[in-house]
Write a structure and sequence with these properties.
InterPro entries: Peptidase_S1_Elastase_sf, Peptidase_S1_PA, Peptidase_S1_PA_chymotrypsin, Peptidase_S1A, Trypsin_dom, TRYPSIN_SER. This protein is mainly beta. It folds into two domains: about 70 residues, Thrombin, subunit H (Beta Barrel), CATH 2.40.10; about 100 residues, Thrombin, subunit H. The strands form three sheets. Strands 5-6-7-10-9-8 form a six-stranded antiparallel β-barrel. A two-stranded antiparallel sheet has the order 1-2.
Length: about 200
């Protein structure tokens, strides 16, 4: 028997009904997980999925479309991006009711793959590292966006929060690791056109 899931868009404060929320069903057959994703191996990459909503979301001030970055684009070290989510605000801390955001600078592949950072076995070129000891993603942020502003002022979804260090959320030299959306644009386009 197939299950039905729900996506809530326009959410900000999970403890209050604000009037901007839209709850849209998703059939289990309309969840498209990358075929090379392995649930037991975060460092193997391919941590990306698409959901097909049963009906379109109504766009509003609170609900907008995410914009994809140019295919294959890689941001330079220190590029300012923003993570948002309802994840813990500190290691072992509480889950917030209100959507949180934090500026996370990109940590380039050269730094993130150094042995005293994440190392070359944990980080693939289909991933982005961002943040660090002061600010990072945390448990509960997985699946959320890393948005970065393009030169023309538009915001693009460059990353999908994938994993943080088992040492804790603000561990030194262990930035948050994201799936690099620009590495999967062919798969995204093909999956959308096939379904």
């Amino acid at each position: 028997k197939s299950r039905t899931y729900q996506v809530v868009v326009g959410e900000y404060d999970m403890s209050a009904e604000e009037g901007s929320e839209q709850t849209i069903p998703v059939n289990s057959d309309d969840i498209f997980v990358h075929p090379k994703w392995l649930s037991f191996c975060a460092a193997c990459g391919n941590d990306i999925a698409l959901l097909k909503l049963q009906r379109p979301a109504a766009l509003s001030a609170e609900v907008q479309l995410g914009r994809l970055p140019p295919a294959g684009s890689v941001l330079p070290d220190g590029y300012p991006c923003v993570i948002s989510g309802w994840g813990r605000t500190s290691t072992g801390g509480p889950l917030p009711d209100k959507l949180q955001q934090a500026e996370l600078p990109v940590v380039d592949h050269e730094h993130c793959t150094q042995l005293d950072w994440w190392g070359p076995l944990a980080i693939r070129d289909t991933m982005i590292c961002a943040g660090g000891a002061e600010k990072s993603g945390c448990n509960g942020d997985s699946g959320g966006p890393l948005n970065c502003q393009a030169e023309d002022g538009t915001w693009e979804v460059h990353g999908i929060a994938s994993f943080v260090s088992s040492l804790g959320c603000n561990a030194e030299k262990k930035p948050t690791v994201f799936t690099r959306v620009s590495a999967f644009e062919d798969w995204i386009a093909q999956t959308i056109s096939d379904n």
